[in-house]
Specification:
mainly alpha; globular
């Protein structure tokens, strides 16, 4: 089921009454997407991080109107129930250092 969209996997787990699987799907999604968003952030100099974050927030806000009511409800539910996302700072620094070394070559 890995190739199936997260939303479909989440819906199927919820329809089956499998809350553990639903939570696992959300966790997997957040981990995967967070890594991708951090990779994008690493493409910029660290002094530009406020601009990167502002751009991500503005883009997210701009996309909200295109969601259906149930999509917006899902976003609000996920955001209100997510208290932390852990970022491995040593890995983040390693990747940033690696990117800087590649740019210097």
């Amino acid at each position: 089921m890995k190739g199936m969209p997260y939303s479909i996997r989440l819906m199927l787990a919820q329809m089956a009454g499998n809350n553990k699987e639903a939570s696992r799907v959300v966790d997997e999604c957040f981990v995967t997407m967070t890594k991708k968003f951090l990779a994008i952030a690493h493409e910029y100099d660290s002094v530009d991080l406020p601009l990167v974050i502002a751009t991500m927030q503005i883009a997210a806000s701009a996309m909200m109107p295109i969601l259906s009511d149930s999509g917006r409800e899902l976003v609000e539910n996920l955001v209100s129930h997510t208290h932390t996302i852990t970022v491995d700072l040593s890995e983040m620094r390693r990747q940033a250092s690696q990117n800087n070394e590649e740019e210097e070559r």
